[in-house]
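User: Here's a structure from my thesis project, written as structure tokens. My advisor, Dr. K., wants to see whether a designed sequence matches the one we expressed. Can you design one independently, without my sequence as a hint?
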């Protein structure tokens, strides 16, 4: 590009140009004091007099709360440095031992490093208080700032350890396509007053990673594993299963039921590293948006229904259709729908099978079994006393019994109806008991004792 073309480039209407760091700010301050002298033709005596005049003035250095004056020697050093090396020569030189915590003895330095390496979550004040309480360090012998500088020097300060475990660099990541990975999480909303009582508000949501689309959201009073399963089933019925479900380590997401159901459905469970909130940044960003646009302005609502209709309105009218900077200006709904998912084999039968719970139970003498606090009965009387497998799907439907490769229905016990019900045979279809077959154990013994035949005839 030639000089004429460069000269025609317009500058921004609002231009902000500030020192890049504190050292450059100090250099600009020093050049403002001695810089004018470098442009004047002064002999040695005049220059010396100018230095004395500047030394009588007071100046406010960058970041200082008070003014101060500078000696002639200091002003001369600035002057010759600026004339020789320009602005860069006026930058203050850092201390050669900066960051090396010179107050610490080698033994104490090693002790502090060992403690931080073994107890990464311990804060500097906690470490110092513990060492003082143990008698291994005198009170106020070392300042917290000195210890923090030591940890920074060795890469053990808490910020990088919080952000990426201290050893690995955190990278921005994203799922390959919509439906590949869903996030699941719970947000605590403001408490609701229902019938004069305060009830907690928990917002459950599932977010698609690649599109930021909310595949399911629901307001509840609790955050149990069953709550998670119910909202997951709703999302699966509507959108099909994801490849991966990304969760935190809360009790809601680490249960055996969820793990088993996802394994049966071919969904991989992935849990974030404990205490690593930034790893769940997409979900946290959505919660912040939801709070600012909805939850912080709910007012005095008195039912979960009132909350849910506002949540859905916020999603449908704003969030799902609003341009997102992380999506290059596209809306979550557009990105989610633009990539069709491959056909999957998940139907209602497969969903029920994946969420089927089975337990071993012994059938009572009255052909009843207990399940989840309720009594059920069988029509197959011959199963009385036997150990059978009772099954039921968590998404509804009647329970059943599995035994010897057969499945038998269960129905709730109705004692009053059974009082007027004809007793069914123990094994339907079995032949009636024969009444003509002789069987008399005591008579057989008597015949043997008397020497007579069992049919009453005497011996011959």
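Assistant: Designed independently from the structure alone:
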């Amino acid at each position: 590009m030639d000089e004429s073309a460069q000269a025609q480039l317009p500058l921004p209407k609002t231009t902000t140009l500030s020192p890049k760091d504190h050292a450059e700010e100090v250099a600009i301050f020093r050049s403002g004091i001695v810089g004018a002298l470098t442009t004047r033709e002064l002999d040695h005596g005049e220059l010396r007099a100018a230095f004395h005049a500047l030394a009588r003035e007071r100046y406010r250095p960058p970041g200082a709360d008070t003014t101060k004056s500078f000696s002639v020697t200091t002003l001369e050093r600035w002057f010759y440095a600026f004339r020789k090396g320009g602005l860069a020569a006026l930058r203050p030189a850092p201390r050669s031992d900066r960051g090396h915590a010179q107050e610490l003895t080698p033994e104490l330095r090693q002790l502090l490093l060992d403690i931080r390496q073994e107890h990464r979550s311990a804060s500097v004040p906690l470490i110092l208080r513990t060492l003082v309480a143990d008698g291994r360090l005198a009170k106020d012998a070392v300042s917290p700032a000195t210890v923090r500088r030591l940890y920074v020097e060795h890469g053990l300060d808490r910020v990088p350890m919080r952000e990426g475990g201290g050893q690995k660099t955190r990278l921005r990541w994203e799922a390959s396509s919509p439906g590949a990975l869903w996030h699941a999480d719970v947000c605590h909303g403001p408490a609701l007053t229902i019938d004069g009582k305060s009830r907690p508000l928990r917002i459950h949501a599932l977010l698609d990673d690649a599109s930021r689309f909310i595949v399911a959201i629901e307001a509840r009073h609790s955050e149990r594993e069953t709550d998670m399963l119910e909202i997951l089933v709703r999302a699966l019925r509507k959108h099909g299963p994801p490849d991966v479900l990304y969760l935190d380590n809360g009790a809601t997401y680490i249960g055996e039921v969820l793990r088993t159901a996802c394994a049966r459905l071919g969904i991989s469970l992935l849990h974030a590293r404990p205490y690593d909130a930034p790893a769940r940044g997409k979900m946290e960003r959505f919660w912040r948006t939801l709070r600012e646009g909805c939850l912080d302005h709910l007012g005095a609502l008195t039912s979960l229904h009132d909350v849910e209709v506002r949540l859905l309105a916020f999603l449908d009218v704003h969030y799902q259709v609003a341009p997102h900077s992380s999506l290059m200006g596209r809306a979550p709904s557009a990105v989610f729908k633009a990539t069709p998912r491959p056909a999957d084999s998940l139907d209602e039968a497969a969903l029920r099978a994946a969420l089927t719970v089975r337990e071993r139970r012994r059938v009572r003498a009255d052909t009843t079994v207990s399940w989840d606090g309720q009594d059920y009965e069988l029509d197959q009387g011959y199963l009385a006393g036997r150990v059978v497998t009772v099954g039921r799907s968590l998404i509804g439907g009647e329970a059943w019994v599995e035994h010897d490769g057969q499945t038998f229905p269960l129905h709730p016990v109705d004692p009053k109806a059974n009082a007027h019900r004809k007793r069914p045979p123990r094994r339907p279809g079995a032949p009636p008991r024969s009444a003509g077959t002789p069987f008399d154990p005591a008579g057989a013994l008597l015949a043997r004792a008397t020497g007579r035949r069992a049919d009453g005839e005497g011996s011959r």
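When you compare it with your expressed construct, this may help: The two ends are 140 Å apart (CA to CA).
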